[in-house]
Amino acid sequence: MVRVSACALALCLAIAASSRGVDAFVVAPSAGGGVSAAIAARAAAAFVPAPLRSPSAATALRMSDDSDSDDGDSSSSSATAGSTLIKLPDSAVEVVIPIPPTATQAAYDRAVTEISKTITIPGFRKGAKIPPAVVENAVASRGGGKNALREAAVNGLVGQLVEVTLKDEHELDPIGQPVLNPGIVEVAETFVPGEALELRVKCDVWPEIGWKDAEGQEKPYYGLKGSYKRRPFNQERFDKAMSDLQERYATLSPAEDGTVLAMGDACTVDMVGYMADENGEKGEPLPNAASGDDVEVVLGEGRYMAGLVE
After folding, report:
1. Which stretches of sequence are listed as region Disordered (predicted)?
2. pTM across the whole model
3. Is the pLDDT of residue 287 over 50?
4. Are 96 and 198 within 8 A, CB to CB?
């Protein structure tokens, strides 16, 4: 069995806890079979934190020991179990992500630290370590809600774990935005720092298509038949679409002098609009109104202010 000094263990755990996304340190023992603070310090100095690669935000400490590998006494602590993929109808899936107690506590502590930086609480200097209960009460008293800290913690876990779990663990390419179900507010109601948590995420994915080999056919998708539900014909929508197309692609042709304009006709006019004062006389110019020479006006209801076309 590898002997670990108290100082070495404390140093490794302290650095691991402060490094986001760290799952484990692997530290080789010294010739005497132990791990000293100096060895741990060198391992920590050479360590570069990597991005989070699994839905584990907990820290495990593994000690490698070739000499004791055969006695069955060497062990490692698992951070968390893997997530579960559940296939749903209509090309949808649900992924159940278990969150270990250490991760919920770490997420809550981070939320407390971040929110503490943004508020001022009487009796505590800025930047001081404030008890979580005091921070929660302060946020709630300022309209943030009683579960604001817990919602922030859950939101942090979602941001850390959902995307990497879908893509790295299950190789999913979601269509649209994955949805937490129940949502963050509901999850925060049952969230307890230091206790295990379960996140359920639903998302649409690309359908899996399996081709059946057909004898004599180079392309198996030839000759496939599908079914669909025919919608009833909507004459009103058809007429509206036709009218819009006719208006959009209409061409103008000159009219004879003296022609009386009708709805749908176009003309060019010289115009300036004014507000009427209390005596009915010309007042201030109309704001944001078309004005000038050779302004094209298409006669139609709802295009301009009431009374202009008439």
Report:
1. 61-82
2. 0.42
3. yes
4. yes
